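Postdoc handover notes: sequence design on the structure in folder B. Input tokens:
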């Protein structure tokens, strides 16, 4: 997903067998190294609901279709900035629309059939007074034996309203990819030392843009968000690796984003 024009990776996959009920979402978020809310709360004091964040307002896409038993609840932010708010609203609405469309022909009237659920929440971080970072956690339940989780970030300049991708954050994006690749591979290999996950980690941290598509901007640098199965099995949860601003200097980060 690239800024407001990119879609959640979960959308092509929701027709596949998957299962993530609210119960399992809450359970998974309680596990070590699992759950954006837990990570953000411990690291930055961020909340799942951003209502307490100055200038950030909660909004909700809520849809329920008893015929095909779809249930959608996605909380998303607005800032009182027309351009940014419209872009986020369009993106969230498109995710909800496509989830509904995937099950439009499925008449799941049997009471024993669980609902198809899409649950979304977010946390807020602020690398500086001139930028803001939203990290979304999207859970899906589609009736199978296993669930689906996507972690997606949207970063914005509060000076221009621009959605910030890798090429906007670094003068040398290829160098940034290499730096993040080396840093995250070392960290994850230490984290999972003694396991059989070396190749999985090396593949998931290869110096490719898709491996580093979701960066949470923080006052200290970036937190690299990895999807479940990208660098570790489902049981280990979605992994996050923090990387200090100073370690990215050779890629010439846009200093103003971090107030430097």
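Designed sequence:
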């Amino acid at each position: 997903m690239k800024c407001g024009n990119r879609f959640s990776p979960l959308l092509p996959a929701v027709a596949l067998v998957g299962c993530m009920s609210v119960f399992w979402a809450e359970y998974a978020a309680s596990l070590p190294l699992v759950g954006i809310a837990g990570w953000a709360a411990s690291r930055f004091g961020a909340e799942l609901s951003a209502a307490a964040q100055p200038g950030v307002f909660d909004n909700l896409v809520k849809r329920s279709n008893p015929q095909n038993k779809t249930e959608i609840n996605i909380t998303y932010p607005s800032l009182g900035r027309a351009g940014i708010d419209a872009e986020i609203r369009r993106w969230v609405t498109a995710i909800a629309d496509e989830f509904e469309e995937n099950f439009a022909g499925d008449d799941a009237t049997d009471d024993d059939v669980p609902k198809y659920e899409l649950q979304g929440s977010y946390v807020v971080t602020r690398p500086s007074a001139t930028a803001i970072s939203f990290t979304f956690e999207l859970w899906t339940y589609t009736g199978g034996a296993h669930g689906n989780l996507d972690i997606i970030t949207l970063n914005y300049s509060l000076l221009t309203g621009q959605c910030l991708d890798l090429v906007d954050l670094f003068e040398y994006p290829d160098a940034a990819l290499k730096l993040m690749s080396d840093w995250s591979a070392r960290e994850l290999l230490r984290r999972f030392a003694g396991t059989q996950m070396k190749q999985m980690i090396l593949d998931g941290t290869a110096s490719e843009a898709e491996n580093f598509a979701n960066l949470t901007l923080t006052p200290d640098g970036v937190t690299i968000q990895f999807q479940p199965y990208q660098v570790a099995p489902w049981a280990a949860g979605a992994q996050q690796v923090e990387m200090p601003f100073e370690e990215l200097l050779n890629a010439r980060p846009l200093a103003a984003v971090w107030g430097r």
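Context for whoever picks this up: The two ends are 28 Å apart (CA to CA). Don't rerun without checking with the PI first.
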